[in-house]
Automatic annotation (TrEMBL):
Coiled coil: none
Record-linked SUPFAM superfamilies: Metallo-hydrolase/oxidoreductase
Signal peptide positions on this chain: 1-34
Domain of life assignment: Bacteria
Annotated Metallo-beta-lactamase domain residues: 58-279
InterPro entries assigned to the protein according to its UniProt record, in alphabetical order: Metallo-B-lactamas, RibonucZ/Hydroxyglut_hydro, TAT_signal, UPF0173_UPF0282_UlaG_hydrolase
Name recorded for this polypeptide: L-ascorbate metabolism protein UlaG (Beta-lactamase superfamily)
Organism taxonomic ancestry: Bacteria, Bacillati, Actinomycetota, Actinomycetes, Streptosporangiales
Keywords for the protein's UniProt record, in alphabetical order: Signal
Amino acid sequence: MSENGFNRRGFLRAAGAGTALASVLGAGASAAHAAPAPAPAGTAGSGSGGRAVCDWLGTSGWRVRIGSAQLLVDPYITRFPTGLFQEGEEFDSKTSLTVDAATVDRIAGDPGVVLVTHSHWDHFGDVPHIATTTGARVVGTATTCNLALAMDVPTSKVSPVKGGEVLDFGDYTVEVVGSLHSRNPNYSMAFPGVRLERPATRPATIADLPEGDTLAFQVTVGNGPSLFFMGASDFVERNLEGLAPDVAMLAAPSTTRTHEYVPRLMEALDKPRKVVLVHWDNFEVPLENPPKPDTTMAFTPQELADAVRAVSPQTEVVIPEYLTSYTFR
Ligand SMILES: [Zn+2]
Ligand SMILES: [Zn+2]
């Protein structure tokens, strides 16, 4: 409780940002419903139309369509219970990994690429199933790739990255950014550690999927916007220098352990014109709107939106709904 009070004071450095609320909400809605702009002339060679259409999959998950290409970021669709969100229950680190294949297949579509920020179950749990059934390429840390290999993803379909790579997928590029995992109240995280070799046995429980270091990704559409995707709420400030994305998917912090999270992040990203808040929802209930907030977090999504606007009043903040298309150009 006291954390919230402390945090609000730390976050809300500027006053008077509230007047932007109505226009920000309007702008958020218009992201989904704006009339399509004609593709600029002379952009032949890129079938992207200069835009990315993004559907939120809950947590930090996205289905992104760029022209005829489709990619996924941290798709976690199964959303099985672990005790994290259930009243009167304890978190069970031995919870079995399961996949709701019918739901995953329906929502995941046919991606060419799956970007994985880190290998915790709520980011990676559905990825081996998606990769093995669609043939999608998995891009992630060495740990993510080793876990994928142990879960039957073929070697030719795993692409280990560290941060600094700029991968060219034709209609879009992916710049990999070395990043950091969120802090829990003990300044730590669940299941720390790495897998530097392919595990001898197939991961079976959520504890078998360690964090494995954390990445962020900047996806840049040919003749279109750049979108920064986070999967966890910490970052290496110096690694963000010069990225200046048009749109940033910002992960909500669950605690106050990271100093001045929103102000430092917004400054490091050069105050993107649009911010979409992610990983603030209860990810152990089905993907049905309205999303249920994770009530154990230090901030509500609305408080985070206010914190973003306090640093950057001109930024449009979107609190997304599930499986709703947001078009960025
Ligand atoms: Zn995590
Ligand atoms: Zn997570």
